[in-house]
Amino acid sequence: MLLHIPGVLSAEEVARFRQALAEAPWADGRATVGPQGALVKHNEQLPADHPLARELGQRIVQRLSSHPQFVSAALPHRILPPLFNRYQGGGNYGLHVDGSVMAMGDGQRLRSDVSTTLFLCDPEDYEGGELVVMDTYGAHEVKLPAGDLILYPSTSLHKVEPVTRGARTCAFFWTQSLVRDDGQRAALYELDQTIQRLRARLGDSDEVLQLTGHYHNLLRRWAEL
Ligand SMILES: O=C(O)CCC(=O)C(=O)O
Ligand SMILES: [Fe+2]
């Protein structure tokens, strides 16, 4: 499931993030990639252990942990501390698949189920730089307003097209979901969203309560803790 979630950060928050990141010590993005990715990755990243990356990353995780739509879609078990990247002057990231098991930094490991890009610049700030995600229906080009995010299954091949004018700055991170299978997660998301709409129309009727029970019983079946 590819899902666009708008307005995760406000315009003021994005401006503060961008101001702080403009003065950050950007480094070669190949520092955090395996041998296959290193061949196709041409961007810059803020080092993961830089205090600014930690502080801004924590704010993003905090926001998302209480964001009903993100929680419903990703069913997060663990979120890898967000990283920040920048592409400019032809910078790009060729077709790749994200690593399946990642080090959390605190000794724990995380299985990447859901990949996320949170845009910190607007489409008119740069030329190119589309995130292209492949699925059985073909290639999906994603270029969102600042403050919006896209989530997509970590099982997908994807790439970032060359940025030929301006700069593209984003936060990106991986989530280990309670439910590893994308199809099961998508079914739970759609069921949850339908229940929310029914509840808004009918209140907590018996049927809404029963459907909520079905939702939790499916999650109970599929969740891995
Ligand atoms: O910049 C992006 O939107 C995605 C980055 C990416 O695919 C990665 O770092 O693995
Ligand atoms: Fe990637």
Automatic annotation (TrEMBL):
Keywords: Dioxygenase, Iron, Metal-binding, Oxidoreductase, Vitamin C. Binds 1 Fe(2+) ion per subunit. GO terms for molecular function: 2-oxoglutarate-dependent dioxygenase activity; iron ion binding; L-ascorbic acid binding. It holds the Pfam family PKHD_C. Its cofactor is Fe(2+); L-ascorbate. 2-oxoglutarate binds at R168. Residues 78-177 form the Fe2OG dioxygenase domain. GO terms for biological process: DNA damage response; intracellular iron ion homeostasis. HAMAP family: Hydroxyl_YbiX. PANTHER family: PKHD-TYPE HYDROXYLASE YBIX (PTHR41536:SF1). This is Fe2+-dependent dioxygenase. It comes from Ideonella dechloratans.
